[in-house]
Amino acid sequence: MIAVVGAGTMGHGIAQVAAMAGYRVVMRDVDREALARGVRAIESNLDKGIRLGKVTEDERDAALQRLRGATSLEEAADADLFVEAVPERMGLKRATLREVEEIARRDFVFASNTSSLSITEIASGAKDATRVVGMHFFNPVHVMRLLEVVVGRETSGETAETARAVGRRMRKEPITVRDVPGFASSRLGVALGLEAMRMLEQDVASAKDIDTAMELGYNHPMGPLRLTDLVGLDVRLAIAEYLHTALGSETFRPPEILRRMVAEGRLGRKTGAGFYEWKE
User: Fold this and answer.
1) Residue of 151, 84, 86, 80 whose CA lies nearest to 109
2) How confident is the model over 180-200, as pLDDT tens digits?
3) Is the predicted pLDDT of residue 280 greater than 70, yes or no?
4) 211: how many CB neighbours lie within 10 A of its CB?
5) Residue 25: its H or E element
6) pLDDT the model gives residue 115
7) Cα angle: 92, vertex 94, 95; to 5 degrees
8) How far is CA 191 from CA 161, 173, 224, in A?
9) DSSP-derived 3-state class of residue 254
């Protein structure tokens, strides 16, 4: 059984692909409304999959039968794998690991979906740090094939292979990286996104034209500014600040346009406005 801690954008996406892969899944969130939104999002994604011919009605029904929501972590006490998808705050992630250790009834693997925070630091003080690993999924989880498996200083080879095996069963393509700031994907992706923001700030081109340059010129499926809207400008700002501090590189100093837009509440698709206007 897999327990997903957090029912937000990443959490419900991970729960969906886990249930579609045949795992029994408990998706837990302390906020009942957030939990309900997560379940509705999964149902909507599966229904869209049916319309596109990528999911059958039987597959949808079976996945939903394997999935249940919970507000108490104790309902997932028998899980073999806990995947945390809580906000990118070190204290919160470490607290989630401690909470799992207190309620778990069997040996388990604890995977963090962090996109940049240190797995070694998350595992610091754990009862068994060898069982802590990073499983960095990409948004939208049910579409994106990459899974970044991040190996901390004490992560065992068995734990890393468990994460890779689960990822492959979810139809992901796992890559394995060492626990360094930004791992591989975030370090490269954030650098590209921040430079695109500086270009917009300097009036080099419009957001749409900057994105089109990367989509058509470099065959990126989505431009860096549109992707930032999808990820969330607040999330990108937090990662950039962390990388700027951890690596000491001016490449990751957040541009003023990013700070201003976050202060204005223009966080991307989730607020309806970012570098683009979003209408559901």
Assistant:
1) 80
2) 888 888 889 999 999 999 999
3) no
4) 23
5) strand 25-28
6) 85
7) 60
8) 29, 23, 10
9) coil
Identify the pLDDT of residue 181.
84
Could you tell me if residue 28 is left (phi over 0), alpha (psi between -120 and 50 degrees) or otherwise beta? beta
Q: In whole angstroms, how far apart are CA 279 and each of 164, 224, 260, 270?
A: 37, 19, 22, 10
Cα gap 55→8, rounded to integer Å: 22
Q: Which domains does the chain have, with CATH numbers?
A: 2-178 (3.40.50.720), 185-271 (1.10.1040.10)
The pLDDT assigned to 137 comes to 95
Contact 81, 3 (CB under 8 A): yes
- Among 160, 91, 113, smallest CA distance to 17 is for 113
State pTM to two decimals.
0.84
Q: Are 170 and 164 in contact (CB under 8 A)?
A: no
Tell me the backbone φ, ψ of residue 5, rounded to 5 degrees: -100, 105
Could you tell me if 232 and 268 are in contact, meaning their C-beta atoms sit under 8 angstroms apart? yes
CA dist., res. 165 & res. 173, Å (int): 10
Task: Give the number of residues written for the chain.
Answer: 280
